[in-house]
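Figure S4 source data
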Amino acid sequence: MDTRRCGRVSRYVVVAVAVLLTLIVPAVAFAGGAAQQRQPEGMQIAVVFGRGGLGDQSFNDAAYRGLQQAESELGIAYDYAEPQAVAEFENFLNQFASTGAYDLIISIGFEQGDALSAVSAAFPDQRFAIIDTVVEAPNVASFVYAEKERGFMMGAAAALTTLDADMPLTNPQRRVSVVGGIQSPLIDANVAGFIAGARYIDRSVEPTFAYVGSFGDPARGKEIAISMIEDGSDVVWQAAGRSGLGVLDAAMEHGVYAMGADSDQSDVAPGHVLTNGLKLVDETVFIATQRVVNNEFEPGLNRLGLADGALGFNEGLLAPATVERLNDIRAKIISGEIEIPDSIAAAQEF
């Protein structure tokens, strides 16, 4: 339940008087419930990260890079909070909004949708942004991604690799897998895309999937990945946040390929991360902040995909022929030649 102010490394204990302080000291920022004086210069941005906080080497860390970029290039100052439970989202958003100190408050992750809906209604003059879901409110800019496009690219990469006998960590079983975090429309879209992408390459490839039930449980992620590997999967994609670190660990221990998510996770399992399903959350945070700095904030839906450069993959350990094929597939998705199914059931019939 910690928050940290930009440039400081100390942590603060949440105290009951924080709510009272928000009523009597309007020009302060809260870090874990302890009041700190607002920096007078530059624009002030607050970020509430997704569960698990920083150190996931994935979604939250990518968002933090965008925040740091905005500090460096735009001159903003920032505060952030690292909730460990869904119940904390609304509390942190309320604390930040109550100060009146922030030009923009950003929610990271679809799990914050309900909390932001409530808080944005309570503070109609406060500007908010949310990444990975839609909150329909006149003071909220929502940024979402075409998740099925990324999933399709990862499924295609996995299938092309498992079929390639020259790839050293593959086996003859033609089975590939994806481990999702929490079952939800967002993760389901990734899974559906993965299944469809694998079947697009070759229907003899068997894509399987499972959910951790959490974005913050690497041990459970590893357990699920080991089960998949023991069942014959030689490429496993993680779409599970911090839980996905366990997936990468399992791949390294068991001598198969893993695929990262959101950020380049090649360093987590050297020699085993085939590629990464990139979601450029850092760019999204920077863009949302830049629009406020430039007085161009607009509430409403912003949908980003392959065509916008917001999703993609890196070459990593992919064979050159696979990279060439994936670039062709990306062009066909952008042009509309490939139409990706919306549901897992439809993907299984693709």
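Figure S5 source data
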Amino acid sequence: MATGPSTQRQVVALGLHLFTFEGSPVVVLQAAARSRYGQDEPRLDVVATDPAAAGRLLGEIRRLMREKSVLRGQVISFAEQSHSGPPSGTTFVQRPTVLASDVVLPDGVLDRVVDHVIGIGEHREALRAAGRHLKRGILLYGPPGTGKTHTVRHLISRTEGTTVVLLTGPAISLISEATELARALQPAMVVLEDVDLIAQDRYEHGPQPLLFALLDALDGLDGDADVAFVMTTNPVELLERALAERPGRVDLAVPVDLPDDEARARLFTLYAEGLPLGAEALHAAAERAQGMTASFAKELMRRVVLRAVERGGEPGDGDLEVALEQLLSSSEELTRALLGAGTRTSEEYPTD
């Protein structure tokens, strides 16, 4: 059985345990899940001479399961839901390493996000003592390719020991299961990428609209639960008015817009790290790339390296100029659009 992104351990698939608990002899039958025999979940049967002792033993086992869970403090993603209902499993994900210096956003934006997601957790005891709630929700919105996912990866990087559940694509339908897991393994973070898909496909994943399922999941947690919901979206209007009509579920919305001139220059310098490119050439390229995104800068530097490899030399300013000309050409218009360039700013996304 996997116990982490790169670790495993042997476990008992079928076993009989005989011991005493609180002075009473007990027998515990442990059986792993066997889907082909109709048993989709692990099973634990307890037999004891004292029924009350058996109940207390089960309670202690449940407590230890939460405390010692191999999922605690890990980054995990849920597998796509099977037709029979429950998730088919979880996958451990390596916790990323993304420094604050690797996240290029307008001044103050990253600090606001970090203070809300991480700062509240760091002051959990003081907030609880003051009767304040810990549960929080944050929405990062704006054009694609501007750094929302990179910001989320930075948050995950900085929260070592926090359980993180990633939900993307069809797995968003598992929001209720993710919330229950986060409740049991807090402090926890539930990440929902491209949450606008909930609104787009709200009638395609069962009888309950997914957007309402998300809101119900947020409602279902007690205020003192140390769980952060981090959501990203491009077109914020697709969330309709549901979030505003049920206030308190998302308590901070942060626009992540197209980089300005200074931010774009920083992005070009960041993604050119390790390449022998001149500062003046990078600055000139950034000035020409008006309205371009972090994704554009990343792809540009890859093309610089590829061009140098193809001609059998080291990357240089000439490679940067040619690669930029190619990406800015009319034949690459769709490519630029797919990289998020030329899209609307968050101020242009209607909210009503």
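The longest strand covers residues 14-21. The first helix runs from residue 51 to 68.
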